[in-house]
Amino acid sequence: MPLKVEEPKQAIPVRRIISATILILLIGAFTLAVKKPVPVSTPQSPTARAEQAQSFETKISQLEQAQAEGRAGEEVRLTADEIRAAFAQSAASTGSQPVTVPVSTGEGLPTIEAPQVSFEGDIVKGQFVTEMSGKKVYITVNGRLGAKDGYATFEPTKFKVGDLTIPVSLVHNALQKKLVEEREKLKLPDYISDLKIENGELVIRQK
Questions:
Q1: How many structural domains compose the chain?
Q2: Which of 1, 37, 175, 196 has its CA 20 to 30 A from that of 189?
Q3: Tens-level pLDDT at each residue, the chain (207 residues)
Q4: Rounded to 10 degrees, what is the CA torsion of 101, 104, 110, 116?
Q5: Which range of residues forms the domain containing residue 126?
Q6: Would you say the pTM of this structure is higher than 0.85?
């Protein structure tokens, strides 16, 4: 009786394995990119927002008054809640248009909704919502604030799209270019010498 010889199993092409792996990674990256991340701040009630906005105005008025009276070296500390409330109130009163961030989509810069802001240690965290290809995408940017030659500066330390972390090196140049384009909007009042995040608060120092 003749022996039955089994045919060798055909090996799976390496190229197919690599293609399948890349596809899985891309799907995973897209899923993370459109996934809603943990919010950087909690929503404010209308009452709380009004109170925080008033607190912001009071503190800024203290600096202006010190300048008018010839006093120097004054400083105020602002919380993230006060900043967010003032931003929301300003946007509502002026009817300002949504801003943009330097994220390349192949179709120019996307329009984003008003940012949410929080402070942690010496880091400011900003979170924005935009739409890309019909999908709502959350963009989170961490960084350090500063002042130089009368203008506010921002140095990014972390960048995320959804839950997907993007190397800062990939967005740093685009972000700095955008800040240069918006330079006049970053100009500080003449009486401000410095600003930075310190112990979870925004510290503004007068000259």
A1: 1
A2: 175
A3: 454 545 555 555 655 655 554 454 444 455 555 567 777 777 788 898 899 999 999 998 988 888 888 888 889 999 999 988 888 777 666 554 444 333 333 444 444 455 788 999 999 988 888 776 777 888 888 999 998 999 899 999 999 888 888 898 988 888 888 888 888 888 888 888 899 999 999 999 988
A4: -40
A5: 34-206
A6: no
